[in-house]
């Protein structure tokens, strides 16, 4: 089973969902703009990805959202997380998590293949 955080208006999200369907993989959809993740959920995803919040942020969208992003350092890590919870459009998409914990930002075929393969285990 895979959980996919997606925005249905995003072409990369639609592609990821199509790939899941084509692979016959069971999945659940979380429309993260309607149901933003909590700070704890983001922490969990980031730990599985081995990344920092700014690594999965859509920084180019910050200006359009009226968000001033803090410095990219551990001192401001919590500020990044809170900004992403308050403005989920800042979160890169789609994010997919397999039941074994494999988590990817599914913007490329290799990442999608990795999470689909993990769901078969």
Straight-line N-to-C gap: 10 Å
In terms of per-residue confidence, which ranges show pLDDT below 50 for 5 or more consecutive residues? none
Work out the count of structural domains.
1
Query: Percent of residues in helical segments?
Result: 40-55%
How can the largest sheet be summarized?
4 strands, mixed
CATH architecture: 3-Layer(aba) Sandwich
Protein name: Arsenate reductase family protein
Family: Belongs to the ArsC family.
Kindly describe this structure:
With 121 residues, the protein is of the alpha+beta class. It has a single domain, classed as Glutaredoxin, CATH 3.40.30.10. The chain has helices at 11-23, 39-49, 62-65, 77-86, 109-119, and strands spanning 2-6, 27-31, 95-98, 103-105. Strands 2-1-3-4 form a 4-stranded mixed β-sheet. The protein is globular and about 40 Å long. This is Arsenate reductase family protein. Belongs to the ArsC family. Pfam families: ArsC.
């Amino acid at each position: 089973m895979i959980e996919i955080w997606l925005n249905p208006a995003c072409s990369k999200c639609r592609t990821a969902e199509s790939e899941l369907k084509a692979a016959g993989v069971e999945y659940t959809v979380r429309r993260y703009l309607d149901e933003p993740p909590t700070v704890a959920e983001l922490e969990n995803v980031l730990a599985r990805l081995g990344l920092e919040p700014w690594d999965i942020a859509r920084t180019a969208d910050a200006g359009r959202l009226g968000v001033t992003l803090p410095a990219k350092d551990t001192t401001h890590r919590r500020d990044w997380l809170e900004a992403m919870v308050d403005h989920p459009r800042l979160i890169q998409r789609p994010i997919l998590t397999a039941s074994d914990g494999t988590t990817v930002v599914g913007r490329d075929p290799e990442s999608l293949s990795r999470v689909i393969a993990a769901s078969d285990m």
